[in-house]
Every structure is written in structure tokens, then in C-alpha cells.
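Researcher: Here's my situation. A collaborator sent me these components and asked whether they could plausibly form a single complex. I don't have experimental data yet, so a predicted model of the whole assembly would be a useful starting point for our discussion.
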Amino acid sequence: MGGSHRDEVRSGLEAHLARLWRYALTLSGARDIADDLVQATCLRAIERAHQFQSGSRLDRWLFSILRSIWFNEIRSRRIRVGEGTLDASEALSFDGAHEIETNISAAQVLRALGRLPKAQREAVLLVYAEGYTYREAAELFGVPIGTVMSRLAAARLALAHEPQQLGEEMSEGKTPR
Amino acid sequence: MRLPDQDDLRLVAFLDGEISEAEGAELTRRLAADPSLRQRLDELRGVDTPLRDAFALLLEDAPLPRLLACLEGAVEPHAAAPAKHDSLRWAAAAAFAVLLFGAGFAAARFTAAAPSAEVASSESWRQTVAEYMTLYTSETFGAAEATTSDREFEALGRRVGVELDRERLSLLGLSLRGPELLQFHGAPLLRIGYVDEATPVAFCVLRDSEVDAPLTMAIREGFAAASWAKNGRGFMIIGKLQRDRIEALARTLQSRI
């Protein structure tokens, strides 16, 4: 039995690696930390494969593991050693190799997302990209549904008012690559 | 930047399908009667598509080869490192490099739910190597000419099922640097590093690779790459050199190995 759980968790991890990394990047705001966080999540999930209940959603289980490692271990450790985290807007944008002309507006949105408070960013990712319901997100965060709602509304408002700012940025000569 | 008020909360919940039926009906009635409320709704809704695109782009940006290597490492912690009893110096060097570069070569390109035992396709390992080449500098393979002995090269060669020594590997105009033993989907993968002035060049051999194939040239991730396969071993030499130069180097290696 243990073996089949392990196999299930392993193939689930493989199928969801990119999504886990995206979540890790959204939480940490730094690519190197995101890599570490996914690695730690893989280790922990394999270790605890027996705790996974077949039939429940494996991706949600993996996300909750990743989140708990971030909040309980990595973030606290980094703060303790005084590293802090990078400016998230840097990490959430793209390097030249990946930025495609047609996706400039998406890249701008990513930069704007990077400027949001982390709690809003996380809510936006989970609800809008990962399909969490308000209730599911609230349970994961351990907050009332109303808090999730106001994080999402604040984020949408901020993003909706972003274009003017982006326009200024571009007229200052920061042309998209 | 204004803070969201109760109407913003309702509008967002409405857009997200998270509003109660009664509140939804009430809001619909107000929207019909209030153009400024409709404008706010449009404003909030305008974020949906760019947000979806942005997150999709972020997903594409995930460093899958590296992540897959992390996963392989988590499943079989010993898989990426050479056997313990190998006390040769290269073993320590390779283990260190694997740590340093995140066991990158251990990875395949992401395919949903690909079984781990699946034999690496001739395409996927080459593409993975090419992706890792983009990270390399002239210093990656070591700062000086390799001091690896013939005996060590022979031992490495045996791991990938080919006969190797310094003479076979020496290439005109290139400085031979450190070898590195890696693995791809469980198959041993040997990478020999070279440097041409400041340009890293890698020659790779994968055991258990593919059916025999003649030399073909391709551009991978902006690098010139020559590939061939013989006796079930896959070969590739790749680097940011002129295509003809890579092809000539490949022919030399092909005639010797």
C-alpha cells in the first residue's frame, strides 16, 4: 500500500511541478527560493506519501505542504539570517529570453502583481489561476471568507489602475524587450 | 489608490461567481440602473484576461529540467551521485557539480505523468543538455586544463559503454576540462567539458539511448549541436561556435569513439 501511495504522490508531483513552482515564486518572490521550496516540497511529500488520502485532490495536498514549508520553515529561516527577500517585482517579471512581444501586457501584469502585498498576490493566484473557491482559500489561509474577498477586491482594484503607471514607466524609456 | 468598499467586494464576488442568489439579484438590479456601478464592474472585470495570460506565462517560465531533477533527487536521493566506493577524484568533483548545478542533467523535459522508467527519447535528453548549456560559462567546467588521467577517463567511459582516453578526447583548438557523470531518466550520461577561448563546449554520451543515427546538425537554444548515435549510445557535441566547426569536431569524435 505504501508503495502505491508513493507512486501516486510521485507522479502527482511530476505532473504539478510547474504549478508548484509558480505558487512558490508567488509566495517567495524570488526564483532561487522558489526552486528550494519546490525541492523541499518534493522531499516532504514523498516522505509523507502515506498520509495522502487516495481520492482527494493531490494538487491541493501538495500546495498545502508547500505553503506550510514556506511559512513555518523557509521564510522564518531567511528572516532570521537577515536575507529578507528580493523585490518581488523583479522575480515575477521575465528575463529577456522568455519575454515575448505578444505577451508584453502579461509581463506588465506580472510586474504589477509583484507590487501587491504578498497576501493579495497569493489569494489572486490561488483563486484566479488555481481555481480555489473563496472557502477553500480561506481554509488554507486560516482567515474568514470576508478577508479573502477583500484581498481579491483590493488586488483587482490595484491591477485595474495599473495601466497609467505602466504607461509612465514606458515613456521613461523602459521599453519592453 | 483607494481601498475596496462594500460595492467593490460585491462586484468582485459577483464576477467570481461567489455571491449569494439574493445579493446577485439585488446587484443586477442596481447595475441596470446605475451606469457608474457598471463602469466599476467593467474596470474590475478588465483584469481577468491579462491576469490569466500572466499566470500562464509564469507557468511556462518554470525551470522544469531543474525541478524534475529535484524530484528525482527526492525520490532516489542516491540517484544523482556516483557510487560511494568510487574514490577517484572525478567522483567528488562530479558530486559537487551535481550539487552546484542542481543535478540538472538528471531531468527530462516535462511531460505530464511520464513514467520515470521511460527510456529517454533521443530528443529530450539533447534538449535538456541544450537548456543547461544556456547556464554555463567558460568557468563552469573548471578553470584549467583537466588533469583527469587516462585511467579515470577509461572508468568514466565504461559507465556509458564507450572507450575513452585523453587522446581520443583531445580536440584541436579546444582546452579539455573536467568530465562530469550525470544521469538522465536513470541512464548514465557523461559530459566532457571543453573551452574554446571563452566559450564552453560540451560533448555528451548517453548510454541506452537510441537506434543508430547518422550525424545531424541542429540549432538548440541558440547553440550549434551535432548529434549521432551508434551501438545504442547517443552522442552530442554542443556549443556557441560556428556550425561548421561543431560539425568538424563531431566528425573527429565520431571517427574515434
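Model: Some features of this prediction you could bring to your collaborator: The two ends of chain B are 67 Å apart (CA to CA). Chain B touches chain A through 47 residues (CB under 8 Å).
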